[in-house]
Hints:
Elements: H1 2-16, H2 19-22, E1 27-40, E2 52-62, E3 64-76, E4 83-95, E5 98-111, E6 114-121, E7 134-142, E8 145-153
Antiparallel strand pairs: 1-2, 1-8, 2-3, 3-4, 4-5, 5-6, 6-7, 7-8
Amino acid sequence: MARHLCTWIAFLSLAAAPAHALEPKTMHAAGTFDVKLSPQPPAPGIEAAGLGRMTLDKQFHGELEGHSLGEMLAVQTGVEGSAGYVALERVTGTLGGRRGSFALQHSGTMERGTASLTVTVVPDSGTGELRGLSGAMTIRIEQGRHYYAFDYRLP
């Protein structure tokens, strides 16, 4: 009986806690990465779609230290400066001192030269000490150098 009472007291104390007290704190990582893109032939039977396919091989430096492998599909339109791409990659390494892996999903468009890019952690893709990872990454390229900023949460 006393054990059940302790369980209920613990439950009620969590239920009474403000919602923000239960949410993990958002952390930030930043650094650079090197990327190697390797063109691949189209998948058999869909050559007429005009999709470009590439493999990704990245090395992250900074607060995220690791390696990733992935694939990208892209399409260009008949209008100069308009295109789209999607990609998935598996990152393995250390983030904020925690080791594991996670998947990133990219969705990018360019409309007449104006770019929009979303890179998010695939839900429940974290392994090892990165289990439960969520967040989003921004990427910028300046003078040929790639930079990332990663806002993330861990339980």
